[in-house]
Amino acid sequence: MQVRVLVRLKPGVLDPQGRAVHHALEGLGFEGVEDVRVGRLIELDLADGTDHDTIKAMCERLLANTVVESFTIEGAA
Amino acid sequence: MQVRVLVRLKPGVLDPQGRAVHHALEGLGFEGVEDVRVGRLIELDLADGTDHDTIKAMCERLLANTVVESFTIEGAA
To answer: How far apart are the CA of B68 and the nearest CA of chain A, in angstroms?
Structure first.
């Protein structure tokens, strides 16, 4: 089974990478960019039947730093 | 409008970060992990009505290195 984990910085946490991308888009002439946030996309190919709690444990123990990051799990059974 | 861009390494391109995560998950005792790929999540807050071609141009010119990465745009009008 394919599972997608999205890891984002929590609101209020400074995102220098996002600011750099925002600035660069404006420098390239793109208008109307109001905000940019950069996070991680982690695609897991897991044994069928892996339960949501196991995936959540993977996120909490390794994939996300829950002090400053939040995560969402998509595509789990 | 909120747009989400997912940037992934193309199939066949070595993903050392994904391998490291895979190895670490096994080291933590998680079983049944078959593959892990790590990419980037870029969340854009754009002016309403920004068209798909503009967002595609942002990806091709800045957000993704299309030599080794592919991108998908989600949530665009």
So the answer is: 16
State in Å, rounded, how far the first CA of chain A is from the last one.
Answer: 8
Determine if the pTM surpasses 0.80. Answer: yes
Give the CB-side neighbour count of residue B14, counting CA atoms within 13 A: 2
The residue ranking higher by pLDDT, A76 or B33, is B33
Tokens of B41: 């999540």
A4 by Cβ neighbours in 10 Å (0-12 / 13-18 / 19+) ranks as middle
CATH number, residue A62: 3.30.1280.10
Q: Is B49 left (phi over 0), alpha (psi -120 to 50) or beta?
A: left
Number of domains comprising chain B: 1
Structural domain harbouring A32: 2-74
Pick among B4, B8, B46 to test the A interface (most A CBs inside 10 A): B46
**Tens digits of per-residue pLDDT, A7-60?**
999 999 999 999 999 999 999 999 999 999 999 999 999 999 999 999 999 999
